Amino acid sequence: MVFRISLRAAVAAAAMLASPILASSLGTLRAQQSTPARPAAGTPRALSLDDAMRLAERESESLQIARAGVERANGQQMQARSQYLPQISGSAQYTRTLRSQFSALQQAVTAPGPEVPGAPPPDTTRYFQPCTRYLAPEGSSEADRLTGVETFSRCSTTGGIDFSKVGFGSQNQYQLGLTGSLNLFTGGRLSAQNAAATAGRRSADIEVAAQRAQLRLDVAQAYYDAALADRLVGIADSSLVQTEEALRQTSLARQVGNQSEFELLRARVTRDNQVPAALQAKTTRELSYLRLKQLLNLPYGDSLTLTDGINDEMDTPGLATSAANTNTAANAAAMVVALTDSLVQQADTSADARSTVRQLTEAVNVERAQRRITRSEYLPNVSLSSSYAHVAFPSQTIPAWSSWVNNWSVTLGATMPIFTGGRIRGENKVAGANVTEARARLQQTREFAALDARQSVAQLEQAAATLAASSGTAQQATRAYTIAEVRYREGLSTQLELTESRVLLQQARANRAQAARDFQVARLRLTLLKDLPLGSGGPTTGGSNVGGSTNTPAGASGAGGTQQRQQPQQQPRAGQSASVSAPGQ
User: Fold this and answer.
1) Alpha carbon distance 310, 275 (integer Å)
2) Which terminal CB of the chain, N or C, has fewer other CB atoms within 10 Å?
3) Per-residue exposure over 357-377, b if at least 16 CB sit within 10 Å of its own CB, e if not
4) What is the 3-state secondary structure (H, E, C) of 271-285?
């Protein structure tokens, strides 16, 4: 992601400063083309912020869930659109009749009877046969043809039927069929279902963007927390070295008789009190790295080296050069403020642009569509359907193609509720209440979004002001401690003065590192504000301990976006609200 700054003068001045803090602020936004290869076992893995964000997007479960929601919404949209088209289905079936209700009739008709002079012999076949079987074949004598005609006449008058074509009592039945239906008029139900499915799809897309923005903010917070923890460990170790040096000097002075035993004990206690602070700082760093690895799905045993760490040393050559170019630290502070103003001007802080507000807007659209669906129940549903069947009833197992017959029907039907006992009216009342509730939630969320945007801007301005104010404090504290150390070594001051100077230096460095971390997170949060859910984690962490203990960086907040409730696959009842939930509700 590349962030463009319109105020070229501010960018040029910030680049001229060459401050590691501002360089890291802009450098973390440069796009990388590929993730570096995994190092060999035992080798620390170099990790930039851009690499961490790409790795997190590839491994994030929350993003996978959001993308699955998009697929689900696509499927529901296809289901809704399919109702506009004819629905055609085919079937093939074979039926074997073991016993039939026509068996007794067949047996009574075909049972042998008494001999009748001139009558044909009794039909001993199991099934009815066509009466045409009594007609004499071609070439028969006149007497045979006359006898056949008379027998055919008597057979017909007794109800002889060709059951091979109608299937009564047939042991074997084959059927090939096609059925189709088309909705002609639904009272607006289909259009409302499609509108609800389309709104659900848009909401799912918004959710993916919101989860991605939240993930980037979480990773940035965890990354800068780990970088801050690294810096605080360095400050704690530096303070421990300073107390050990003070103890060494006090011990030498005690040996030559220039210091009392009280001063020696005081120096030793001061050094010993600094040891737990250094251990606490290292534990905090370990926990911060574990949090970062958890977000990136990296093994907890891996060793990481952060390439975009916080480096706030005030006596580095780069900063010394920039101080010479800008003359005073006040100019550097002015550059930080100018950069902040540019970020605020370019950020989209409107309430309607927030992802949560957009999701709730789609939720209102869904509820309106549901109300249209319930109202459509008052109107008739008109549909056209057709059924075509190709059937055969062979006496043998496999039918001949010539024995198949067709059965085709077309139906135009309409259905309309006449009396439902108040069900439809109740469903419409529920749907209307859902629309009213969704509108109220949308308005409430707009107000929260406007407040959250102002808070984000205020947090960035506060972080920038703190960073600008601390630009010269650490440098002055370093100079003060150097003077206090010389004075103590020369016997011109007490250990109390040296300890106080050391504590002030440690506090100034910790405040500078904390301000750098807060500025980084606040800047990124304002950049991602449009897609961030409401209630996402802020940039600030706890203050530093004046007594020398390092502060604990706040863990990155979890993903604030909640997954939307997906639309049901079939048409829901009016009382079942199909809204899209949003975070913070």
Assistant:
1) 23
2) N
3) bbbbbbbbbbbbbbbbbbbbb
4) HHHHHHHHHHHHHHH
- pTM of this structure: 0.70
Q: Which run of H or of E encompasses 382?
A: strand 381-392
Collapsing DSSP states into helix, strand and coil, what is residue 178?
A: strand
Question: CA-CA distance, 572 to 80, in Å (whole number)?
Answer: 12
Count Cβ atoms below 10 Å from residue 167 Cβ, excluding itself.
Answer: 16
Is the distance from CB of 475 to CB of 329 less than 8 angstroms? yes
Query: What's the pLDDT tens digit per position in 493-521?
Result: 777 888 888 888 888 889 989 998 998 89
Whole-number Cα distances in Å, 287 to 226, 296, 448: 8, 14, 33
φ, ψ (nearest 5 deg) of residue 270: -60, -45
Q: Which two tokens stand for residue 498?
A: 């040296």
Contact 578, 567 (CB under 8 A): yes
Burial classification of residue 41, based on how many CB atoms lie within 10 Å of its CB (0-12 exposed, 13-18 middle, 19 or more buried): exposed
* Domain ranges across the chain: 98-169
What is the band of 14 on the pLDDT scale with cuts at 50, 70, 90? very low
**Structure token pair of residue 220:** 């940035």
Nearest to 389 by CA among 95, 163, 108: 95
Q: Are strands 87-96 and 172-185 parallel, antiparallel or unpaired?
A: antiparallel
Q: Answer whether 487's CB lies under 8 Å from 246's CB.
A: no
